[in-house]
Amino acid sequence: MKPIYESIIPYSNISFKVESYNAESCCMSAGWHIHPEYEIVYVKNGSGILRIGDKTHYYKNGVLVFLAGNIPHSDFGNKQYENSQEVVIQFSKEFVDEKLNLFPELGCIKKLIQTSKHVLIFHDSVKSYLSNSFEHFSDLSNQGKLINLLSILNYLSTTNDFHKLIHFGLPKEFREKETFRLKNIFEYINNNYNHKIEIKDIAIKVGLTPNSFSRFFKKMTNRTFIDFLNEFRIRKAVDSLNERDMTISEVMFLSGFSSPSYFSKQFIKYQGTTPSNYVKKAKLL
């Protein structure tokens, strides 16, 4: 089965993405999917199955796995216990090339990242040693999260206590042309989300007719383009509400919406509350 292309939407004020989930707020299932970002997943406890590429791995007491981008996989976590916890860290090739590569001292970390193309499953002793670092990510500032990530990568780069799930290359699940086209679409959205975006305009940018573009986007992401665009804009609106001293109307226009009623409807859809209630709750924190 061909995997769905998952778009990783980063927050505007941090150069990588980290999310923590528990038994009640579990990670929304993406099914069999693929994305270009590197991914580190820590599962605290419980048993489950890792399905990565054409390999299957069973775990009994949680798992710590590191895989490179563009490797198809299914969801990793489980809800077996009340204190279940899953931490997912994702970072792009640009994060490695434009940031980590600036520091020659990080040679071991860069070697580890290269090795992740084999999908690294670390021994329980490594998972146990790093458990506190993973489980307290959500308590840290953005600066603290970056330092914590580098500390985790540093430790992982110094241990041989892992096994490689994949020893040879995987067959390419996507044609390079499709992947390149989808990347251009996401870049266009990121650069123009605060302006009016019409399907016919972005279709021309990637060499498709509007109808072909809509079919292509749905095939690759299992979502309509409008649904994806609205969620992306709401994520940017949330970032602005959290970081800037702006009115809701200013945030609405800045994130690409022009209708207050439509903005509120989409905000409720993706955040579960109205913009005004979100602001009120944020001020109480």
Automatic annotation (TrEMBL):
PROSITE patterns reported for this sequence: HTH_ARAC_FAMILY_2
- Give residue ranges for domain HTH araC/xylS-type: 183-281
Family matches, as InterPro entries: AraC-bd, Homeodomain-like_sf, HTH_AraC, RmlC-like_jellyroll, RmlC_Cupin_sf
Q: Which UniProt keywords apply?
A: DNA-binding, Transcription, Transcription regulation
| Record-annotated membrane-spanning stretches | none
Domain of life of the organism in this record? Bacteria
Tell me what this protein is called: AraC family transcriptional regulator
